[in-house]
């Protein structure tokens, strides 16, 4: 990396991946020491500050994200993708989760940077999600050896259309971390699910809301936020995550019956703000969880016979294709497929603020 990231800057590409936006770096361009790296990312994004006015963060968790990408040394894997969630108004950087939305942009970024090559009209890339150990397969269109960002795919939460990117993720662990379809935690019946993202499924009625409120309305409900956070902290050890007080996982989902043509209505605390749409791996976990008999949300959901599960969210709907079943030992496992889009926003050098 440059000797002076304040004056020389770092090579950086800003990309939209799904309904998120983040700063993408090659691993060789950022410090190898996690503490030094994280402190640098805070200065680059402009945290801690609710406006992130002195950095490139967008003053929201969905736009205060970082992807660090490198060629993988793992067999049958092309790329390693490390995700960092940079807190907006606190000096915190978390690597305890991954991000399925930014995952959509990892393949195009790697092609732009020359980590991979593509000679035909389509690229298929195997990506190791460093945060979780899962492996994803991404497939996207290529034109003259570069990503083709144009196309007719539309996803709710993003204006216009773009080239479709197909993502398939197979979880490496059991779908139900506690082995139970439902548990009682902090006085509430909940279901813990991990299909690439640790989530907690909760019945909105049990928390005194309809589950159709806007993100702003839910965030303004201080009593609700406190109760959801109490449950979140109590589930941390059950996931094997320990004390999650300062972490961005698990994600907390209020579920209610579908209002449109979907399977279920969702509102996601991520964990302190409410998602304006839904994350890719969050959707994969919710879609898998509500297919398990006895799980929270299973009795609220309207499921078809196919694998597609349409999740209604504040900005529209998201379709997650999940395969759910029990192995020979009776353990529930799942894999998911989803469609996302991504786009390169700018490429250049980013300059860190001198100090926090």
UniProtKB/TrEMBL annotation:
Keyword Transport: no
UniProt keyword annotation of Ligase present: no
Top-rank taxon: Bacteria
Keywords: Isomerase
Family as reported in the entry's similarity comment: Belongs to the PrpF family.
Record protein name field: PrpF domain-containing protein
């Amino acid at each position: 990396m440059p000797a002076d990231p304040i004056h020389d800057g770092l090579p950086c590409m800003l990309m939209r991946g799904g309904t998120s936006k983040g700063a993408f770096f090659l691993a060789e361009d950022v410090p190898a020491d996690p503490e030094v790296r994280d402190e640098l990312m805070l200065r680059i994004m402009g945290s801690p500050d609710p406006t992130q006015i002195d950095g490139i963060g967008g003053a929201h968790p969905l736009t205060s994200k970082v992807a660090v990408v490198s060629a993988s040394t793992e067999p049958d894997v092309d790329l390693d993708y490390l995700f960092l969630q940079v807190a907006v108004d606190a000096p915190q950087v978390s690597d305890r989760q991954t991000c399925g939305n930014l995952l959509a942009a990892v393949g195009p970024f790697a092609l732009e940077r020359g980590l991979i090559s593509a000679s035909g009209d389509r690229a298929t890339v195997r990506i190791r999600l460093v945060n979780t150990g899962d492996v994803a397969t991404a497939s996207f269109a290529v034109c003259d050896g570069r990503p083709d960002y144009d196309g007719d795919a539309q996803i709710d939460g993003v204006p216009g259309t773009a080239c479709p990117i197909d993502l398939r993720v197979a979880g490496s662990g059991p779908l139900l971390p506690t082995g139970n379809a439902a548990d009682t935690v902090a006085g509430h019946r909940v279901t813990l699910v991990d299909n690439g993202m640790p989530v907690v499924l909760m019945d909105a009625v049990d928390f005194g809301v309809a589950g159709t409120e806007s993100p702003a309305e839910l965030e303004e409900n201080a009593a609700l936020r406190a109760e959801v956070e109490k449950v979140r902290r109590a589930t941390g050890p059950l996931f094997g995550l320990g004390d999650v007080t300062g972490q961005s996982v698990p994600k907390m989902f209020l579920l209610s019956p579908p209002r449109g043509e979907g399977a279920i209505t969702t509102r996601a605390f991520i964990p302190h703000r409410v998602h304006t749409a839904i994350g890719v791996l969050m959707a994969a976990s919710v879609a898998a969880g509500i297919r398990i008999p006895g799980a929270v949300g299973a009795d609220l959901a309207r499921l078809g016979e196919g694998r597609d599960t349409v999740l209604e969210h504040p900005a529209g709907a998201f379709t997650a294709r999940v395969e759910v079943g029990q192995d020979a030992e009776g353990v529930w496992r799942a894999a998911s497929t989803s469609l996302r889009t991504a786009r390169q926003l700018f490429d250049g050098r980013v300059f860190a603020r001198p100090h926090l």
